[in-house]
Write a structure and sequence with these properties.
With 77 residues, the protein is an alpha+beta fold. It contains three helices and three strands.
């Protein structure tokens, strides 16, 4: 997991473009990096009954080949 509390996320990623609903910070981050960098991670708020605990956390899954993981690292660096 990664703490994203110090990462600046553009405001436009906090709004669901289909429904207009406001995303939690973790969902906004996931939406941001998927759209800007083509890399996907997992928001953590669904895993906590107190959503504020997970709103600054994302989880990374590494169930890909080394080649794909290295490409993801290249995109994020």
């Amino acid at each position: 997991m990664t703490d994203i509390s110090n990462i600046e996320i553009p405001e436009k990623y906090f709004i669901d473009p289909e429904t207009g609903a406001k995303f939690t910070r973790d969902y906004a981050f996931v939406y941001y990096i998927a759209n800007e960098f083509g890399v996907v991670c997992i928001p953590m708020t669904p895993y906590f009954s107190d959503k504020s605990v997970g709103e600054n956390l994302v989880r990374w899954a590494f169930c890909k080949t080394d080649e794909i993981i290295n490409e993801a690292i290249r995109r994020l660096v």
